[in-house]
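> forwarded from #structure-qc
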């Protein structure tokens, strides 16, 4: 039975390329981007929005990073965003956030791909996916297949001999259910996210 509670949220101001990525209708978005261009912030917000309207009680949403320390950084950022709200239950040891509408956001490492098999996962962000094992994506894809959940990939370009590059080619080719985005430092400067020094 779905919860009758609702989370009243107001989306923060996002620049056009952030909005385009998180509002994409594609099941899978693949974004290669420079550092410090706002990809973590916008994708944390997307995961938070998704978890605020879960299809069933106990629905799970995952943030997956190559190593635990990177997952912990994202977890800490979302904790700061939530502030001291008593409506959300924070579990520091498990890196989970439980919402008042009975959904869970988990922050997980991709180091052990077998840990990414699960149930009732309705959305995921795969952070720095080009630096993770391909087996981690196979496991996550299997988990998302059960719920037809969405996944957003974000990372830096890392050569042409890895599964992440092949995935980006798939998205660029117009494959159904995929959409590709590329964000450069120049895009971030133009939108005011990055500063530009002259001289």
């Amino acid at each position: 039975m779905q919860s009758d509670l609702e989370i009243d949220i107001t989306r923060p101001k996002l620049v056009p390329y952030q909005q385009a990525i998180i509002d994409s209708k594609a099941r899978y978005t693949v974004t290669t981007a420079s550092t410090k261009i706002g990809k973590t912030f916008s994708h944390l917000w997307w995961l938070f929005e998704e978890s605020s309207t879960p299809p069933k009680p106990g629905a799970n949403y995952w943030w997956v990073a190559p190593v635990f320390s990177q997952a912990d950084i994202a977890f800490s950022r979302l904790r700061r965003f939530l502030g001291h709200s008593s409506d959300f239950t924070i579990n520091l040891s498990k890196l989970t956030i439980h919402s008042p509408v009975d959904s869970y956001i988990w922050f997980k490492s991709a180091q052990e791909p077998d840990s990414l098999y699960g149930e009732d996962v309705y959305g995921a962000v795969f952070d720095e996916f080009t630096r993770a094992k391909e087996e981690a994506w196979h496991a996550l894809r299997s988990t998302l297949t059960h719920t037809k959940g969405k996944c957003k990939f974000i990372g830096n370009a890392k050569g042409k001999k890895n599964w992440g590059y092949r995935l980006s080619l798939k998205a660029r080719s117009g494959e159904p259910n995929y959409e590709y985005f590329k964000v450069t430092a120049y895009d971030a400067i133009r939108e005011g996210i990055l500063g530009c020094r002259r001289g």
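QC bot note: The beta strands are 28-33, 59-65, 89-91, 96-98, 103-109, 121-127, 150-155, 178-183. The mean pLDDT is 90.
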